[in-house]
Amino acid sequence: MLSISRDDYFVEVAPRIVRGGIPTRIRIRPLDGHIRLEEKERVRIAVLPMTVDACSSTRPDIFETTAVVEQGCLSFEHTFTGEQEHSIRLHRGEETAPFLRTSVYSLEEDLFRRRPYLGDFHLHSCYSDGVETPEFVAAMYRQEGYDFMCLTDHGRMDSSRRAISFYEGLPLDFKIHPGEEVHSPGNPVHILNFGGDFSVNARCRTETSGNPWIVPARPEWMEAVQRRMDRLPPLPDGVDPFIHASCLEVIDAIHEAGGMAIFCHPFWIDNVYNVPVALLQLYLEQGFADAFELVGGLTNHENTLQVAFYRDMLTQGCRIPTVGNSDSHGTVDRAYFDTGKTLVFALGNGREEIIEAVKNHYSIPLDEYAGQEPRFHGSFRLTSYAMFLYEHYFPLHHELCFEEGRLMRALVAGDSAAADRLRELFGRTVTHREGFFAVYPEK
After folding, report:
1. CA–CA–CA angle 175, 178, 180 (5° rounding)
2. What is the pTM of this model?
3. Alpha-carbon distance values, 369 to 1, 142, 323, 366, 407 (Å)
């Protein structure tokens, strides 16, 4: 996560996200005495859309106004145009150099109605091949600034439900969704079950404990796969009928459970790549899964190939939604933790809202490795907006989440007093999120 920007330490701007084309009042309040605003002082304000052509004589007019300091704050009204960032510059007297720069972002109505949620759809605990308990993993994700997570242990869903149960009864702005990484018998392709009401692994395997790669299959599952194989149309060269039929059975079962099926890490190396390229191409072309794990946390080798393959598919008209995940197997050593993630623009943080947003392409994957700036993998529209949020919204959000996560860890360690403190902190991140957005009278 990026650190808080310099100006955001010293000045509060509200709102930061506005509707394009609607008059909006912006309030600017200094947070430290070195930003000197004398009462009744007159300050010149200039607003420059970031897409303005500063070198052209035909450029649109830069908005300029003068505001008077009242009760230590400045405010002005402006109609921000388009969907873009707008630079706000404050000047004293006739000085040409601004003494303060800040910015707001204007959105079209569809995106403005949604709120940003940071999440990870693919991670593990000690109940499969991860390190820590599910409840500890959840605490670490909240501490790192996440709004939701989905624990997807290999071959089982009960561990994700353990994390949910541990925090049951506590008011948290952090959402833990049930999930699992589905290993259907004899099939090397892994599919994530996000939010399902039941375990698909339990449907296709005789047990959930032990090594999911070798647990025997349920006969009724294999019979269902065989029946689907018998109905398959001719397949492209390189697509194995059994693997394809097995994947389709998994996806149908996830949908029956009310979950979202995510096709994950196709270029993970298990001796060779675990997904044949012909099968990956078929699934991206036909959209059999609900989403494609464009970014995983393993290595740049996998990520580079996945992104390159997806870009090729885009040129052929592929429109499958994408997500980014860490595939974290431990949060303390940070080998994969917090490297791949998804920013979802949703109407809420619940299962249905997250699934709706992803399916309708309101999600953007990103990867962020130690010592490197984050890389966003999406449309120009979402990338531009996400970069603004990652600079101005999420660092402050992270600060608020950190204390909640630390208290969640204390609760895991047996500190019962942490529960009362968590109740006191409840709602802070929601207040921060809603305060970031302008409020307009209902029509």
Report:
1. 135
2. 0.95
3. 10, 19, 17, 10, 26
221: tokens are 């599952």
pLDDT tens-digit map of 186-224 = 999 999 999 999 999 999 998 877 777 788 999 999 999
Strand ranges, E, within 222-320: 260-263, 269-270, 272-273, 291-295
Write out the two tokens for 184: 């259907």
Cα 53 to Cα 20, 47, 62, distances in angstroms: 19, 13, 10
Supply the DSSP string of 123-184, one letter for each residue. Answer: E--TTTT-SS-HHHHHHHHHHTT-SEEEE--BT-SHHHHHHHHHTTTS--SSEEE-EEEE--
pLDDT digits (tens, 9 = 90+) for 217-248: 999 999 999 999 999 999 999 999 999 999 99
Q: Contact 85/50 with Cβ under 8 angstroms?
A: yes
Q: Cis peptide before 15, with omega less than 30 degrees from 0?
A: yes
The answer for residues whose C-beta is within 8 angstroms of residue 106's C-beta and 6 or more apart is 17, 18, 19, 20, 80, 81, 82, 83, 84, 86
Specify whether the CB–CB gap between 191 and 251 falls below 8 A.
Answer: yes
Phi-psi region of 380 (alpha: psi -120 to 50; beta: other; left: phi over 0): alpha
The token pair that represents 223 in the structure block: 């019979």
261 SS3 class: strand
- For residues 417-434, one letter each, b for 16 or more C-beta atoms within 10 angstroms of the residue's C-beta and e for the rest, the string is ebeeebeebeebbeebbe
User: What's the token pair of residue 252?
Assistant: 């149908």
Strand 272-273 and strand 269-270: the pairing is antiparallel
What is the C-alpha end-to-end distance of the chain, expressed in Å?
A: 38
